[in-house]
Amino acid sequence: MAFRNVFVDIVISFLLILTTVFFAQYFVDFSITPFEDAAMLMRYASHFSEGHGIVWNIGEAPVDGATDFLFMVVVGLLARAGFSVESVVRAVGFSAHLMTILVIYMTFRRIHGSGIYSATLSSLYFAIGPGLFFVAAYFGTPFFTLAVCMTWMQAMTVIAQPDSAVKRVAFSVLSLLMGLIRPEGVFLAAFMLLSLITILGFEKSKPTVLAFLLIYALLGGAYFFWRWHYFGYPLPNPFYKKGGGLLYPQSLQDSVKYVRRLCLPFMPVFLPGICCKEMCKKTIALLIPIIGFTSIWILLSKEMNFGGRFQYPILPVVLLAWYPLAKELPLEFVLFKRLRSKAGMRRLLVLIAFVLFMGILHYQYRCSQRITYHKDGRYNMAMILQEYHKKGYTIATTEAGLLPLYSQWRAVDAWGLNDQWITHNQGITEEYLLKNSPQILMWHEDRSPGISHETPRDLEWLKMLETLRNYAHKHHYELAASFGELSQKTHIYYVSKNFPDSQEIIKKIRSVDYFWYQSGRKSTNFALNRQK
C-alpha cells in the first residue's frame, strides 16, 4: 500500500508539472520585455556577474537598490557561467514555481496526510496562479515564494514533531534564507514563529525559539553588519524612499484587496474555526502569518506592486493552512458527517466536490488573466541609445528600469530608488544634476484631469519633475520627444546640445516606434506637434 501511494504521488506530481508547462506555453506571453522594477534588479545582477560588485553604476559606490538580495546574487552567479541575465532570471523563476507546486503537493500528502483531491486542488490552484505571469515579467517573486512555502512547510513539521532538533534547525535556517531573499521575509518568519508558539505553547516551542534566535543573531547579525558596512546603510535603499517613516493606508487597502483575490476560495474555511471553541486557538495561530504579512504593507507606498506581487508569497501559506482546519470540520458539523455516511449522498457530494474543484480553478485562471503587460517603448529607446554606451554618457531618468538596463548608460535614478544621495537628501537638486551633467533628461509626466496631487508622495514627485524641467530649460536642453497616447500623460525626453552626438541622438529618438507601456499601442510624439 505504501509503495502504491508513492507511485501515485509520483505520477500526479509529473502530471502537475506537465499541466503547468502546458499552461505556461499556451496562456502566458513570454515574448515581453522585463517590467520596470524587474529590470532594475537585472542591472544589479548584470554588474555583479561581471565582477563589479553590487553597484548601480560601474565604478561607483555599492547601492542596495535590489531588495531581492539573495535572488540577485543567485542570478549573478549563474550568469557568470555564460548565460544571459534574462535567461537566468526566467529559468530560476520558472524552476522555483515548479518546485513550489511539488512542495505544496507533498506537504498535503506527507505532513497533512490528505487525500489526492485536496492536494491536487491546492497544487493546481497555485500552478495556474499569478506566478507564471511574474516569471514572464522577469520578477524574482516566485523564488521568494518558494522560500516562504518551504519555511511554512517546515513550521508544519515542527508542529507535528516539536522534539526533533533537525526540524527546529531547518525551520530556523529557512527563516533566515527567507529574510535574505527579501527584507519582508524577516517579518514573515517572525509571524510564523509566533504561529508555532501559539499552537505548541511556549514550553514546547522554547527549543525552536532558541534555535531561531541563535541563528538570526549569529548568521543574520553577521549579514546585517556586513551589509551595513558594504552599503553604508542598514536597510535597502528603496525602504528609505518608499517608507520614509510614514503610514500608507492606501497600500494596506491594496494589500487586503490582493490577498482576498488570491485566496478567496479558501478563506471561508477559517470562519467556522474562529466560531468553534475547540478550533479557535489553532485557527488564530494559522491566521497570524496571513494577517501579519497582509498588514505590514501599510509601512510602504504601493508603487511598483505589479499584479499584487508583494502579497503573492502569502498564497502558499494559505494553501498549506486551510486543510488542517478543513479536515476537522466534519467532526464539528454533525449534519455533514451524517450526509457523508449515506450512499446516495456520497455520490452527490462527489459531484459537488467536482464542481467546486473546477469552479475554484476557473476562478484562479480568471484572476491570473487580469495580470497584463504590453510592448514598452522604453525598451526600443534603450536599444537605440545602447549604440553610444561606450562613450560614457549619462541619462537622468524617473524610469530607471528598461532605459538604464538596455542602454547600458551611466544612470541617475531621479526618483532615488537606486541613488542613496537623492534618497537621503530629500530628493534630486539642480546642484546634483549639474554635478552629474546628464546628456539626456527623461521623465514620466501625468497631467490627466481629475488626478489629485495632495499626498506627500505626489508632492515629492511634482517637486522632482519641476527640478528636472527647470534644469532642462536653464541649461538649454532640446525637447526631443513627448511620447504618449494622450498629451496629458507622456514620457518626455530632453537632450543636451553640448556633446558631439546630440543632434544624431535627437533624430534617432524622434524616429523610434514608441509603444505605450499600459496599452501596447503606438504613441504620438506630441513634441513634434508643438513644433509644427
From TrEMBL:
Keyword field: Membrane, Transmembrane, Transmembrane helix
Signal sequence residues: none
Record-annotated membrane-spanning stretches: 7-28, 65-83, 88-108, 128-153, 209-226, 283-300, 312-336, 348-365
The protein's name in its UniProt record: Glycosyltransferase RgtA/B/C/D-like domain-containing protein
Natural source organism: candidate division KSB3 bacterium
Lineage: Bacteria, candidate division KSB3
